[in-house]
Amino acid sequence: MKAFLIDRYGKKETGHVGDVATPPLREGDVLIRVHAASVNALDTKIRRGEFKAVLPYRLPLILGNDLAGTVERVGAGVSQFKPGDEVYARPDDDRIGTFAEFIAVNAGSVAPKPGNLSMVEAASLPLVALTAWQTLVETARLKPGQKVFIQAGSGGVGTVAIQLAKHLGAFVATTTSTANVAWVKALGADVVIDYRQQDFASELRDYDVVLNSLGKEELERSLQILKPGGHLISISGPPTPAFAAARGLSWPLKQVLRLLSRGIRRKARQKGVTYTFVFMRADGQQLRGITPLVESGAIRPVIDRVFPFQDTQGALAYVESGRAKGKVVVELPWLD
């Protein structure tokens, strides 16, 4: 089968399309013929080698972290899917590889595709929708009337998180550039901070939850806008000892993460707020819970550009540039 691979980690690694064996089916797997796969910031970080200590992949590596497609075959013990079913999924993080003609995915990570979406639209959702769900619903336990600040409202996670937070009844603030202010308001944000002209830490006060997806400076300044008892949640780090324990990481790596997060954990305690690092996980049951929100229109996919599979490198470069509004999707040509 055809797949988009990297042979090594590094900023200069571009990747290439090559021929590889179709993945074998394990017990409990479904083999999915990929129609479309979205590109996430996670893909560019993996390519640079930023997660090689936590996710020790074997090279060469097929990139890609979510997909929409049709079930080709099912493995032993799988009864909830059959060949021909239209599905979408975020594979387990140790079995990525959606930039390919086929991928084998644990059936527990797969859900039926929303009936009102095309394959391209459905492929844009699994990773970002699960991230929004696991931060706002599972971790923050966001309640109606609470105030949440979502960084980078025009990004892949931001566009879905704004819609989910509004569905949950929260008051939502976000940041974006001047050109996108009206566009992000149309997604449902109550307050939009133009980061080119305004300082969110000066404008916002008494928030219950912050969802941070940016760097160290924005993370620490987010503490200023939280009320006592608030919750600072970061999907961009630094990871915490709790994350290291949950992942079963080695003792030396646990100590490294303890040191990396010590500063923000201490500052959070001084402010009387909780700091949590969330590294999203595959969860087909949660995707099934998200599907009705998509089919009702409460969550709409936001797609910036669609690239042909042959230009997967171009799609990765576009995401890495930071210019995308919403999601970027790669469509596989042999399924036209």
Automatic annotation (TrEMBL):
Example of a GO MF term: oxidoreductase activity
Signal peptide from the UniProt entry: none
Record-linked InterPro entries: ADH-like_N (IPR013154), ER (IPR020843), GroES-like_sf (IPR011032), NAD(P)-bd_dom_sf (IPR036291), YIM1/Zinc_Alcohol_DH_Fams (IPR050700)
Domain Enoyl reductase (ER): 15-330
Coiled-coil zones: none
Name of the protein in its database record: NADP-dependent oxidoreductase
